[in-house]
Specification:
Layout (H helix, E strand, L loop, with lengths): L1 H24 L2 E6 L6 H13 L7 E6 L8 H15 L6 E5 H15 L5 E7 L12 E6 L3 H11 L5 E5 L4 H14 L11 E2 L4 H10 L4 E5 L15 H9 L4 E3 L11 E4 L2 H16 L16 E5 H6 L12 E3 L5 H4 L1 H47 L5 E5 L4 E4 L1 H7 L3 H4 L10 H17 L3 E8 L5 E13 L2 E11 L1 H20 L1 E5 L5 E4 L1 H7 L3 H4 L14 H12 L4 E8 L5 E12 L5 E10 H10 L12 H17 L4 H18 L3 H10 L12 H4 L7 H18 L5 H12 L20 H16 L10 H11 L6 H9 L1 H10 L4
Parallel strand pairs: 1-2, 1-3, 3-4, 4-5, 6-7, 6-8, 8-9, 11-12
Antiparallel strand pairs: 10-11, 13-14, 13-17, 15-16, 16-17, 18-19, 18-22, 20-21, 21-22
Bound molecules: ligand C2E, succinic acid (3 copies) and fe (iii) ion.
Length: 827
């Protein structure tokens, strides 16, 4: 127990010791103010100090206000000394902070004795001179120096027209220091013709009276005015308020305690900043820095401070006020309060606006571009849609990405059926495979591709097509394939018909060609057939092979003599077939020469008179055919007529006109519409037989000899032979027309000399149509006739050459015929 008590005592001692040590750690600070805290300057200094020492729990603070503004006699100081001795003899301060000259001077005198030579940080010491600190190594602090020159410059900058600057100060020690300083500083402004009167040694009423007389163009620099000529003390704001009330000119100051009492502002000495600067030095010392190592802050921590109310009152140009100035009586705008935030927000806002504007511009640009592109696309689509040739394009995956109407029509699909699809979706697999391979080849070679192909369409029709394909590029890369398709189905079928008809000539016309020695170089199929020989047995031989021995020798002599004289021979020859049968031919032999007069060959065209009769019989049976006439067939027929006409140097218009005249005559005559249509389609072929007429005769630029005309006359029979085998209605009608269009009503025509109604109505109609057009046109052999002559001729020939009923109908409806002639003029 006892032992325990001992331990307890040790514990208590330890605790006390520790507590004591901790208490000792809290620095003891004395703040010694020269004046009283009711003086704003002093309270500002105090606030400045406390802006640094803001946590009073961390310091042990003592404050003394010497109040030496009001009490300044020697005995008062003695009493103060006694009081401090009484209060602080037991205390060692870690630091003393003094404000203003009186406390500073007091410490210089008594620090050693009263305060055990504690470190001193002073502030508010006016015009401190270095030598005044000699022997006081424990002292450091802040100089206080009103900056006259800075303020005069400021006044002249803000009031450039100033003529006089009154400096008001008082008779205190500091006041007189200032007076001397004014005299020194103002020497610098000599050149500027500005007066710098000083007002100091006056009573308060005298001061007011003077101030009332200050004129415009003057400015007051009010320093301070505490003590009057009659040794009266004035509160720090009394004099400045009096001056402000009684003058109407701008007042500037040197100390910030005059602020808010009438001065506009100035480069001010500020109690607050003095205190703050001292506080900063003090805290360094408390942090352990040696006071001797801290230099005196020579540059007084003054600031540009302005009373915004007065700035407005005197209309001071704010733009001339130095940057970074402090203002009082200025309602802090949001701008001042949140300057950084507002700047940041403004920048963000501006950036956003810029961003939005950029976006809008881009959107507008894009829309415009899209519009333009769309327009162009529509235009291009229209363009290719107006082309009759099917056109399509595909991407490199062989998917269709576009086409024109003609392509859709050809393929018998809708656009949506093909877009983004391949040929495999469109046509049979075999054809698609071919296209696929062709596409691959094209993509490899990049060279225009052309190939034939046929395609079975959805509806089963088969088309002969030619494909033209090429690649197209985008941005330098192959982007796909473009193709055009030519449908040659019709062309092929026309060729087929033409070949058929030409072979019909070969089959039906007994024709041969011999060389100059009379050796056969060509025999037609009909020739071969009628002779009973084979082609081989004939070619290279002479006509002697066929000699029957029945003809007179004089016939051959005449024949050879005629053709050797380059004349046409015609006559009847009796020949013998291979099997010994005899047959009779009506033969025309024409010697043919080229343009330069060089001999080419002898052409013989014959008619087997026996055969003709057999054919007439055989053709008795009439086939009834109800086949529709397709446009293709019409076209073929028209073209065939045109081929013959083209050879005889007549324009295609001739056959067109003949067709129209014929149809009109057929209708007026009373034939059905259908039949009239057939007449129209068949009539262009009336001269198809001219195909067989040698050029020299066909295009002879003058009247025929009798013989030449005989050759020409064969064109009707030849045409008939070419056409007669067809079982198509139109071609049958054409055969009749070819055969009978040269017959005449009175029986004087050819080839058969038919008479009146023996001549088929088609023949009678075409005769009028043909002659009407032939007379009105110029030919290689004749000039065009005048209408009057034509009509006279027609009237005369009614009942002779022409059917009088048809002539009658012709004149009755003459205008209609003339209209046709106008509509189909030769070009
Ligand atoms: P084309 O020129 O088409 O004439 C057809 C028919 O119109 C002729 O049948 C005839 O009936 C009549 N024609 C044409 N021009 C005249 C003419 O000046 N006077 C008279 N009176 N009638 C005329 P045609 O006469 O049987 O002739 C058949 C074809 O023979 C003609 O077809 C033409 O290609 C050719 N042709 C007829 N005469 C000559 C001729 O003297 N010289 C040449 N180079 N060709 C002729
Ligand atoms: C004065 O110093 O006497 C008044 C202004 C100041 O305290 O410095
Ligand atoms: C077609 O006929 O399908 C167009 C040709 C092709 O795809 O290459
Ligand atoms: C296609 O073209 O779309 C695939 C087959 C072809 O190459 O034509
Ligand atoms: Fe004719």
């Amino acid at each position: 127990m006892y032992r325990n008590f001992k331990q307890f005592c040790i514990f208590i001692i330890l605790v006390l010791f520790t507590t004591n040590t901790l208490a000792k750690d809290k620095p003891k600070i004395l703040i010694l103010h020269s004046y009283h805290q009711s003086y704003k300057w002093t309270s500002d200094i105090n606030n400045g100090i406390h802006s640094i020492f803001n946590d009073l729990t961390k310091i042990d603070l003592y404050v003394e206000y010497m109040d030496t503004k009001k009490y300044i006699d020697e005995s008062y100081y003695n009493i103060l000394t006694e009081i401090y001795k009484k209060k602080y003899s037991n205390i060692k301060f870690d630091l003393i902070i003094s404000s203003d000259d009186n406390a500073f001077n007091f410490l210089k005198k008594h620090n050693f004795t009263l305060f055990k030579n504690s470190p001193v940080v002073f502030c508010g010491t006016n015009y401190l001179k270095e030598e005044s600190l000699k022997g006081f190594p424990n002292f450091t602090g802040v100089n206080e120096k009103a900056d006259l020159e800075e303020n005069y410059n400021l006044i002249l900058k803000l009031h450039p027209n100033t003529k006089k600057i009154y400096t008001i100060t008082d008779t205190t020690k500091t006041g007189q220091l200032i007076k001397n300083e004014v005299k020194t500083v103002t020497k610098k402004y000599k050149d500027k013709k500005i007066e710098f009167p000083i007002i100091d040694d006056v009573t308060f009423p005298e001061l007011i009276k003077k101030v009332q007389k200050f004129q415009k163009d003057s400015v007051i620099l009010f320093t301070f005015f505490f003590r009057t000529k009659d040794n009266k003390f004035l509160e720090y704001y009394k004099a400045i308020e009096g001056v402000d009330k009684n003058s109407n000119i701008p007042i500037y100051g040197l100390w910030d305690f005059t602020l808010n009492h009438g001065i506009i502002g100035g480069y001010l000495t500020s109690g607050y900043f003095q205190g703050q600067a001292a506080g900063k030095i003090a805290s360094k010392i408390l942090d352990g820095r040696d006071v001797k190592s801290i230099p005196i802050l020579e540059k007084s921590p003054n600031e540009y401070i302005f009373d915004y109310k007065q700035i407005k009152k005197y209309k001071v140009d704010e733009s001339n006020i130095p940057f970074g100035s402090i203002f009082i009586n200025k309602k802090d705008s949001l701008m001042d309060l949140y300057f950084k935030e507002i700047v940041a927000l403004t920048i963000i806002f501006i950036l956003m606006i810029l961003f939005i504007i950029t976006l809008l511009i881009n959107i507008t640009k894009r829309k415009l571009a899209e519009k333009r592109i769309n327009k162009q696309l529509v235009f291009q689509q229209n363009l290719i849609d107006n082309v009759n040739t099917p056109i399509y394009y595909k991407n490199i995956n062989r998917e269709y990405i576009g086409c024109n109407k003609a392509f859709l029509e050809l393929m018998q699909v809708e656009k949506n059926d093909i877009l983004n699809k391949t040929a495999y979706n469109l046509i049979d697999n075999d054809s698609a495979k071919i296209f696929y391979e062709k596409d691959s080849e094209l993509l490899r070679s990049r060279e225009v591709q052309e190939y034939d192909g046929n395609l079975t369409l959805k509806d089963g029709t088969r088309k002969d097509l030619i494909y033209y394909k090429n690649v197209f590029f985008e941005d330098g890369e192959i982007a796909g394939i473009v193709g055009a398709i030519f449908d040659i189905t019709e062309r092929n079928s026309l060729n087929y018909e033409l070949n058929r008809l030409l072979s019909s000539f070969d089959k039906n016309v007994i024709a041969s060609k011999t060389d100059i020695n009379g050796k056969l170089i060509y025999v037609s199929e009909a020739f071969i057939k009628v002779s009973g020989y084979r082609e081989k047995e004939l070619l290279g031989k002479t006509h002697n092979v066929l000699k029957s021995g029945i003809n007179n020798d004089s016939l051959y002599e005449d024949l050879w003599q005629t053709i050797c004289e380059k004349k046409i021979w015609l006559g009847e020859i009796v020949n013998k077939k291979k099997n010994g049968e005899i047959y009779t031919l009506h033969t025309i032999i024409t010697p043919e020469y080229d343009k330069n007069g060089e001999f080419l060959n002898y052409t013989a065209i014959s008619q087997d008179i026996t055969a003709q009769k057999l054919i007439q019989k055989a053709n008795q049976e009439i086939e009834l055919l109800n086949e529709d006439i397709t446009s293709t067939q019409k076209e073929i027929i028209f073209r065939l007529g045109a081929i013959a006409e083209a050879r005889s140097k007549e324009t295609g218009m001739h056959v067109k006109r003949v067709a129209e005249y014929s149809k009109l005559l057929a209708l007026y005559y009373g034939l059905s519409k259908n039949e009239s249509e057939i007449v129209k389609m068949a009539s262009p072929m009336h001269d198809i037989g001219k195909i067989a007429i040698p050029d020299a005769i066909l295009n002879k630029p003058g009247p025929f000899t009798k013989d030449e005309f005989e050759v020409m006359k064969t064109h009707s029979k030849i045409g008939y032979d070419m056409l007669k085998d067809s079982n198509k209605k139109i071609l049958k009608a054409a055969a009749i027309i070819a055969y009978e269009h040269q017959e005449k009503y009175d029986g004087s025509g050819y080839p058969r000399g038919l008479k009146g109604e023996e001549i088929h109505i088609y023949g009678r109609i075409t005769a009028i149509a043909d002659v009407f057009d032939a007379l009105g046109s110029s030919r290689v052999y004749k000039k065009a006739w005048k209408d009057k002559e034509i009509f006279e001729f027609f009237r005369e020939e009614a009942g002779k050459h022409f059917d009088p009923i048809l002539i009658n109908l012709f004149f009755k409806n003459l205008n209609e015929f003339l209209k046709i002639r106008d509509n189909f003029k030769d070009i």
